[in-house]
Amino acid sequence: MQLKVTEPVVPEEEKQETVPDGTVSNNDYFNPELEFDYEGGLFDEPRTFDNPMGTPQSSDPNGTGGTNDYYAQSSGSTNNSNPMPGAGERPRKLSKKEFFDSPRNRRDRDQIIISSIVVIVTAIFDVIRTDFWLTTLQSQINFVNNMAEELGMGSQYQIDTKSIMTTQITLSVILVCLGLGIFILKSRVCAIIGLAITGINLIATLMHFGQFRMYWALIAFGYATIATISFASKWKDYEQNGDWKKEWTY
To answer: pTM value?
Structure first.
């Protein structure tokens, strides 16, 4: 009878590779020290250790450090690219433009930008519309003016197209300047003046001609007034009680 040769049974613990003292093994197990980096993310470029104390060694061939040098600051080195201020330091004060662009003012910023654009577009469109109708109805206007002159009714019954166009251009230029003042300077004064001008113009055209004119500009100036006042209040509060006056503590 022939006997069958069998291999000796080796426990699973003895099959694992023997790891020298002072090193970290990553075989068959998840090692957070090697496979997770707080800055680089999960399964980033693994960090290696060159001494038994576990001090991380940078894997950057240029020796300038990378995302795996997160713990290197504990050895006394400083990272100049760290945006966080040190303990007891104060953050930098934002300029008015930076404060305006910050997420905390998103609603006011959107209202100011959209309102100023609506004002400028409405003012330009009103000039184009007035010129179009005066040119289209030029023959009828000349007929009315001739009849008024022949009947001796005086100039009060004549239509002065030049005066109408000059007034409209002047009004539109003023509104465009106010819109730019709101857009660039975030000016409450420009918003309030524009609201008053468009309100008076709307009432005057409604009483004399029975028409609603430049109501879009009136609505835009109303929103701009609310937004500029709100932004000015937040900016004043930031200057007086902003986080740039508080010391950082950890």
So the answer is: 0.62
